């Protein structure tokens, strides 16, 4: 078998969006497929509406848990502004998949700062290789908006070399038993959209 | 204990903290004690999930350390965990434990926080090992965390010493593969050994112990030469890198083909091993985060170093890229070029996204009032420290756990009284504010000080019945232990009364009018006063009430409600271009603080026709 180099995935979003669970699913999937895995996030303030990032890396041998700046193969943003904020973490040719969702940071809610007017346009201008998904809408269609994180996993699944059965087996174990069907449906809807061309996205 | 027959080696992805708990369990630990603190908290949470280990949240790190020393002295292997600053609190017993040694293995985990993701400083606790003369282990990932933990107990018993086990945020909170093993049954503990000269540290006995402690350092240094955790990995002999902990991974990525001396036991250091490595390479670099801890020790050995702290900063965290850049700048050959590529521009002027009080948080109403009263608020450590952020800007100092009350007392004692006949100036009035868990941790003695020494300050205890900032741990006020057992609940008003405080009032912090009235009354009394703002944490207790809605017709866009600083409120422009505020019903927890701020009566609770919670 030829050596499999380390693949770098950076997940970004807002506390409470399920970024950490998504990262957990990714690492379980990669481990199930026989890869070495390292994953990292910062706890503590994550539940309080702050910016959240999680690093996920897999390959034959992964030395450290952090995706070095400018080397991400995939940036998975659960909120549009948090995608824009981290575009320069991608390596040339890297892919940004973002959720067309706006969550106001607290300074915006307090009227002390403004959310970028045309965040979709800014993202497009900042990075050539972008895929936009309405993960919250897909999750709502599946049964609950809470499964948006799993819809995002569906949306990025074609960019990673893991088998659909592995994804499904891990999701079954990772989510609360009552929500398995809803989450699997959210994953499928996300994966289906991933293969469609990106239309015009309107974050709202 | 039943022995499982396993044909296949079990492997799991664990965080460093989970791996530490696993290692301690496999090592046959009988007791584990801690006070929650990021990034160490999950160790005890994971530990509590294992059978056969008594686990407790102690009210503070000093107590946890003493509980651990007692267990070890009695003959049970013990684990004590804390964040870096927690070791400052526990330093007193920790220093003495070095002299006392360990009857059964005693391991102290210090989780440091370079980069201060959730801390007030970035002290490098490796220095405590040299200071207390105890061995120091530093794992690089979760797999090592588990293996090192098992070895730590053997080391502790073999050398009759507590062991300092140091992680950082990146080793504690990163996940990697861990091979699982079986538990070694703890040995029975049936007899308290009496050995006064060893276990009772008074001058005559400590004088006997100290030379043994110094001899122990020499013995450990000899052991370090052959310790399997100190490992040479020869590659390109032009570059030798000495490193430890998470930094090892960064260095491996930065200069993949270099030669490495990877140290797992970092105090005391193996002089011969380092000198031999030095002799095999053309240039020697020490790559470490925070303090030049390894570098200074190596230089003191008289070993020449070609690059150390002058290449890598004392500040914040290192990463693979920063290590690559610094070594490339120093002319090191073989640096990974992917890590040197220029970064694209960061989009400018993006709004930051700081953490904030959750929608419905019981602290919000209180800080709206404190902002209005313009008091000088001496704060403490917990979610309520965020009262210092906009739009409140209503906490003005905070140094460490428990300091709010004592610092306000110190301020009040040196403030000159207002000129005769002048009205008291609230801006020049220091008050203390402290959370329930922090009060139990080290606020009680501060309050005792104020009573005893005739202080007249106002002190607010924000009691949300949990240790919220670290994720909602039980504490002596919640009526439950870490292991889920019901327990005695500290009655805070009764405790204050017992300390001798006459004015103790409990308020509902969601009621802005009442909160303001009581605070003004207590300030006017000129007496020592405790106000308990009591309301459970909405996040921990999952409290949601019917949401509020804003009548767009009635909203005049005055933004008064935004003083609440609530993430459920959003400014928008309506079809006519008029500025309005709306409430996001998904986020709103129905606390009603914003509606009390609205002078137009535009914000009301939406109760569905059937009266159900929406």
Question: Summed up, what is this model?
Answer:
The complex is a heterodimer of chains A (204) and B (614). Chain A has helices at 19-32, 80-84, 106-109, 119-126, 135-142, 148-156, 164-174, 180-194, and strands at residues 7-14, 36-41, 51-59, 72-77, 90-99, 130-133.
Written description of the protein model:
The complex is a heterodimer of chains A (204) and B (614). In chain A, helix 2 links the parallel strand 4 and strand 5. Chain A has one domain (7-194): Pyruvate-ferredoxin oxidoreductase, PFOR, domain III (Pyruvate-ferredoxin Oxidoreductase, domain 3), CATH 3.40.920.10. By secondary structure, chain A is an alpha/beta fold. In chain A, 58% of the residues are buried. Chain A has helices at 19-32, 80-84, 106-109, 119-126, 135-142, 148-156, 164-174, 180-194, and strands spanning 7-14, 36-41, 51-59, 72-77, 90-99, 130-133. The longest helix of chain A has 15 residues, at 180-194. Chain B has 614 residues and is α/β, with parallel strands linked by helices. Chain B has 4 domains: 11-224, Rossmann fold; 231-338, Rossmann fold, CATH 3.40.50; 363-534, Rossmann fold, CATH 3.40.50.970; 548-605, Alpha-Beta Plaits (2-Layer Sandwich), CATH 3.30.70. Chain B contains 20 helices and 22 strands. In chain B, helix 1 packs parallel to helix 7, helix 15 (363-373) crosses helix 19 and helix 16 packs parallel to helix 17 (436-452). The radius of gyration of chain B is 28 Å and the shape is globular. Classes of the chains: A alpha/beta (204), B alpha/beta (614). At the A-B interface, helix 1, strand 2, helix 2, strand 5 and helix 3 of A face strand 8, helix 11, helix 14 and strand 20 of B.
